[in-house]
Structures are given as structure tokens and as C-alpha cells.
Specification:
Layout lengths: L6 H11 L10 H7 L3 H30 L8 H23 L1 H7 L10 H12 L4 H29 L11 H15 L10
Length: 197
Amino acid sequence: MSPDINPLVLLFASIFTSNILLANFLGMCSFISISKDIKSANGLGMAVTVVLTITAAINWAVLRFILLPLDLLYLRYIVFIIVIAATVQMLEMVIDRLSPALYMNLGIFLPLITVNCAILGVALFIEIRSYSFVQSVVYGLGSGLGWWLAIMALAAIQKKLEKAPVPTGLKGPGITLITIGFMAMAFMGFSGMLSVQ
């Protein structure tokens, strides 16, 4: 049975207080790697949001109408990954056709969305929490928007940090991880107001 959560509450909670990236630390590798350039971060954030929304809907339907009735739940990881890979492949072709510059900018990170653990994590959270179809789509969209917001915020902060007097020992990964820690605390500051746990 689906939990009684208003889709609007679920949307805002998945963007801010239960951000898939800053609350669950899923999808960190591409988040840290691509956040050095605002344009690329924007493109990747948009791509992750589209993939998360589409795969949340498809994976919910596959789980409810194929895997559960046929008692094939043990195949869910493989099926979820196949759905994610197919969606990313189609999105890759669309971006290559519509914006070759963005396609070149994203490089290897675009196909790597397939192995972004945030996307598989959302599919598994949807199953564990028994979300309805609408809740699943809203949760996928909100998680994507939250991921996009976080990567854009980190890219903007990193741009400012380029001109900041950061001690030599903290430059690079050190200051990036400290920044992510502060961002996580800021995003979770209102977790008592909205939560999807």
C-alpha cells in the first residue's frame, strides 16, 4: 500500500531536505568531477533530471506489471539497470543531435549517467517505500531537480573559490569535500519540516 504523502510535500522534500545527493550521498563521483564548469554542470544536471523522471515511471510500471505478477523480483536490479541504460542511450542521441557542443562538453560523463548510483537508488527507494505511480514520478523529478540544484550550487561555489585565498593543503579535493559537507548541512537544516523517510 502506498504511503499517504502529498505529492507536493514529496517534491519539496526530495529537492531539499531529503536530497538524494546530499542526504544519501548517491551520485557523488560525477557530482564532484563535473562541478568545475557551470555550463557542463547545468547540462549534466538537466540530463540526470530527465533520466531520473523517465526511469522512475518506467521502473515503477515494470515492477508492478511484470516483475511482481510473474514473481521475478530477484531480477529487479538487472531490469532497472537495463531500463536506465536504454533511457540514457536515447538521451545521448537526442543531445548529440540537438546540441553537439554540450555533447562534447559532457564527454564520458553522459554515458556514465547509466552507472550513476543516484538513479538506481531512486528506483530502489521507490520499491522499498511502495510509492504509487504519481508519487514515483514526483519523487524521480524532485530527486533530479535536487541533484541539479546541488551540482549547480557547487559549480558556482567552486568558481568563487578559484579567487579565494584557500590554504595550499586544502586546495582541490580538500576544499571541495568541506564545501559539500557544509552544503549537506544547509540542505538538511529544515529536515524536521519535510521528510520522505
